[in-house]
Amino acid sequence: MQAQQIKHPLPRSAAARGTRGITLIEILVVLAIIGLIMGGVAVVAFNALARAKYETAAKDIASWSESVEMYRLYRGECPKSPQDLLAAGIIKRISKDPWGSDYVLTCPGEHAEFDISSPGQDRELGTVDDANSWDEHLGEVPEDG
């Protein structure tokens, strides 16, 4: 009798099967691609958040303007502060701007019958990122903001 060779049911190594594992370079390339995608998403999300805050400030200023007009219609005078609007029952609460600062009401105003301002992201009045009732670009994100 001749000796028969016994075939093993499984190959002894992954190379024998014709497959190979993932190399470190491949993993690093995939991580770099994922990082680039996440960076792009973060930039878009940050810009959308900034735009939404300025649009919210513009809507708040428009609402405050209507409240001041109503106060002037009923009282015949300018409110000296947001507390006057609250005391008259025209507004229910004094809200803050999207950055957590108080809106500034000046009546009579320097630019119109009354001025309403938000200090913006830097929380300082008189800077480029302020949202002002007299600004023709109200609601747009400033170039430097």
Please explain how this structure is put together.
The longest helix has 52 residues, at 24-75. This protein has one domain (22-132): Glycoprotein, Type 4 Pilin (2-Layer Sandwich), CATH 3.30.700. With 145 residues, it is mainly alpha-helical. It has helices spanning 14-17, 24-75, 82-87, and strands at 104-106, 115-118, 131-132. Strand 1 (104-106) and strand 2 (115-118) form a beta hairpin. It is built from three helices and three strands; from the N terminus they run H-H-H-E-E-E. It has a three-stranded antiparallel beta sheet with strand order 1-2-3, covered by helices on one side. The model has no long low-confidence stretch (mean pLDDT 84).
Give descriptors for this structure:
145 residues; three-stranded antiparallel beta sheet; mainly alpha; 3 helices; Glycoprotein, Type 4 Pilin; rod-shaped
Name the strands of the widest sheet in spatial order: 1-2-3
Give the DSSP E fraction (strand runs of 2 or more residues).
Answer: 5-15%
Give the tally of β-strands.
Answer: 3
Q: What's the CATH topology label?
A: Glycoprotein, Type 4 Pilin
In CATH, the homologous superfamily goes by the name: Glycoprotein, Type 4 Pilin
Low-pLDDT segments: none
User: What general outline do the C-alpha atoms trace?
Assistant: rod-shaped
Radius of gyration: 32 Å
H/E element order: HHHEEE
Number of helices: 3
Provide the CATH architecture: 2-Layer Sandwich
Tell me, what is the CATH class? Alpha Beta
Characterize the biggest β-sheet. Answer: 3 strands, antiparallel
The domain tally reads: 1
Provide the structure class: mainly alpha
Average pLDDT metric: 84
